Amino acid sequence: MINPYLPQSAKILNVKEVAPGVKLFRLQFIDLKKQKDFRFYHGQFAQIGLAGLGEAPFDICSDSRSSNKFFEITVRKVGRLTSALHQLKKGQLLTVRGPFGTGWPELSGLSKKNLLLVGGGCGFIPLKSVIEQASLGYAKNHQVQVFYGLSDESQLLFKERYQTWQKAGIDLKIIFDKKKPSKKSINGASCGFGLITKLFETQEVVKGASAFLCGPPVMFKFVIAKLKEHGYQENDIYVSLERKMHCGIGVCQHCAVGEKYVCQDGPVFKYSEIKESLD
Questions:
Q1: Cα(181)–Cα(135) distance, integer angstroms
Q2: Whole domain around residue 65: which residue ranges?
Q3: How many CB atoms lie within 10 A of CB 93?
Q4: pTM summary value
């Protein structure tokens, strides 16, 4: 039986800066058997820690099909623990607990097979693993559209992947709300200026689709209203409340949303299940 309280040691295989103050860590458990058996669902998270500094939840953002070899997290430097993580180099160790939570639904099990992914700011991170999976054939058979909203070009994440995703059939649209883009496209992805909801007015939105949303809480109300205008049903809209994650196992109760615990019942929920808590 796996003890959910017991952290496991993992080493850093690689670390790189993907935006100012944001680093991508590729990790591997010291116990290679544990790594070989490691599995996670898109949208799940892990508790990452350092001795003497505690731990915090981070979304696993790599393709789950590579999880028997490694997994990846993205860390924005905002406090003591994340600042210390940013100082770590390849080969150094940290601790891991997890994976925890309920992730995005499996793409093959969706009632609406086309897909619209809407990510705001760091909310784009939990969608990356879904995009990676969709780029491995799914987007050739179904429409996959991605709306990515953020403040300005300096904050763009995973730029080196845009061309690969688009060649795989993924329609990526980017929009900035603080500073106008310097060019019309970045690595093949078209860019605009305004709030993310503007994309629902300027782009042909994919129809007959399921929608995955992740971003600042204020984004949900306005994006969901736009989705409904385009005919999306509440049962086909999924939201990630990853910003509310805390202990990982529903003990501290800091993540309670109505009768739900984000750490256990989420972070991904059907909108129809929690809409009253979001309103």
A1: 26
A2: 8-100
A3: 13
A4: 0.91
